[in-house]
Amino acid sequence: MFSKRQLNVCTLGDTGSGKSSLILQYIESFFPETFDPTVEDYYNKSIEIDDKSYTLNILDTADTDYIDENRRSNQLEQADVILLVYSITTLESFQSLILLHEKIKNSLCDFNSKPIILIGSKNDLENQRQVSYQSGLKLSQELNLSRFLECSAKTTYNINEIFTEAASLALKYQIEKEQKTSQDDKIEENEQEENEQDKSHEQVVDNQIQKTKEAPTDDTISKKQTNTISKSREIGTAQHTANNNKNINEHHEKNGCCIIM
Ligand SMILES: Nc1nc2c(ncn2[C@@H]2O[C@H](COP(=O)(O)OP(=O)(O)OP(=O)(O)O)[C@@H](O)[C@H]2O)c(=O)[nH]1
Ligand SMILES: [Mg+2]
């Protein structure tokens, strides 16, 4: 059966920064007024990109301090895109992202190609703002992130935009990764072929060397020829002597005498 391509999103950020709220607003069109800290939750939703349908898997994580490092690094590896969330009403949640970003960098082998979106949540709470829009934008540029967006789970401002952008970046990341893998496979295949060709060439050269070793040298050929010549000379001499004796005998027989040898 035809199965849809899965795009994996991982959300990270301080407790209370608004991760669960923006996910719930996107998935269920629901804004939770009361705060219920997350342990770990998974959500999924169908999404269209260029008339094709994909499944967007969203991981809602617990605050960074409460999670095992291996588990976190697995979550990061699995993700095709990472959402770094801070609240515009809490400077601390913004500052802690710098350290979190550093941890992600150290944890991922393909950090440079993994897309990361910076999100400033709760922008409906303008009167409580502690982090300016410019600061968010500046940080995203300094850290070379893929995108920066402010949003509000309460008013739904930019909520769809976040996940549409996340899905597109995730798809791009997956395709580039697949292309790189197939290129690496081709390079490996070519290297193997070249190695095999080198080996068979070496074998041919070895065989030739072996044959050359076994083949007679000019010296041995001339020795053999000398032996053959001397042997034929010996044979010739013997025949000559026999013929001579025969002639002498015939001559003596003709002359009525015989030689006893
Ligand atoms: N006004 C307003 N309040 C928000 C918004 N988003 C979240 N909140 C409130 O902020 C509190 C924390 O939000 P959560 O979404 O639960 O935060 P979280 O990042 O999931 O927290 P953890 O699960 O502990 O990591 C809740 O009481 C929400 O009602 C928003 O866009 N506007
Ligand atoms: Mg939560």
Task: Write structural notes for this entry.
The protein is α/β, with parallel strands linked by helices and 261 residues long. The protein has a domain at 6-180: P-loop containing nucleotide triphosphate hydrolases (Rossmann fold, 3-Layer(aba) Sandwich), CATH 3.40.50.300. It is 54% helix and 16% strand. The chain has a 6-stranded mixed beta sheet with strand order 2-3-1-4-5-6, sandwiched between helices. Helix 4 (133-142) links the parallel strand 5 and strand 6. The N and C termini lie far apart (111 Å). The structure holds guanosine-5'-triphosphate (GTP) and magnesium ion. Residues 19-20, 37-38, 60 line the site of magnesium ion. Residues 180-243 are annotated as: Disordered.
Please outline the helices and strands.
Blueprint: E1 5-12, H1 19-28, E2 41-49, E3 52-60, H2 69-78, E4 81-87, H3 91-107, E5 116-121, H4 133-142, E6 147-150, H5 159-214, H6 218-254
Parallel strand pairs: 1-3, 1-4, 4-5, 5-6
Antiparallel strand pairs: 2-3
